[in-house]
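Thread: quick sanity check before group meeting

JM: Hey all, I'm pulling together slides for Thursday and realized we never actually wrote out the predicted structure for the chain we discussed last week. Dropping the sequence here so it's in one place. If anyone has concerns about the input, flag it before I start.
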Amino acid sequence: MSPTGLRGASLFVAALLLAGCASRFEPSENGGLPRLNVQSSAIAPGNGGELIPATALEPGDILLTSVATLGSFGIRLGTFSPVSHAVLYLGDGQVAEAVGDGVRARRIDDVVAEEQMVVAFRHPGIDAEHAQRLRGWAMSQVGTRYNTVGVMLNAPFVLNRRICELPLMPGAARDFCLRGFAMVQLGASRNDQFFCSQFVLEAYNQAGLPVTMADPRWVSPADLLHMREGDVPSIPATQPLRYVGHLKYNPPPVIVVDGTTAR
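JM (edit): ok, ran it. Output follows.
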């Protein structure tokens, strides 16, 4: 192959990797040809979403958020997602989360005030007993150290595994590919310290209601977003999460280029 052809092939492969997202064929509603469903991050009020008050939340709800900081932007850019953080709602206006200083509890009002976007999802199988176990375990972990190594290892894993999510990749092949990358790249990560989504998933494991059978160290906030009903998850969920609503939503800034408006 000529140098020009090699460069072209390399650019094509790079474009596929950057555009890689999970997909699957689903039966057509009218009995016609199967319909291709492709993973999507688009969810906002006016686009299949709605604004809700904090009083609509129930214990165990999973909140996915983003904030206008460089770190949050880097996570969203690396995961091609509008969310960068995961928070667990405990009830009575209280949440628990894993941040740089470790696991902490705080008020939901503080989360809504500080974050740029807050969207809530609910596990359809949760009941009062699960919620009580979840809250008890989460509160017992307050002060546990942040899994800094896990986050550092997860960043290249998120990028490298996109080869597993090329369009039309069969689900079984995608899962095998993901497990291979995870075993190689995340083996040194700890499971007695937590980053945000790892903490949320471990709380559900401790409550006896796993959100996914995958190791929590594999899962990013973007993966949780794609576990919602109607989407195509990169990492399979035991049951799709139900969208509850947005507690806060600020649309991305408008950028005007050569007279054309875009977000």
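AS: nice. DSSP finds eight helices and twelve strands in the chain. Residues 9-20 have pLDDT under 50 and may be disordered.
JM: adding both to the slides.
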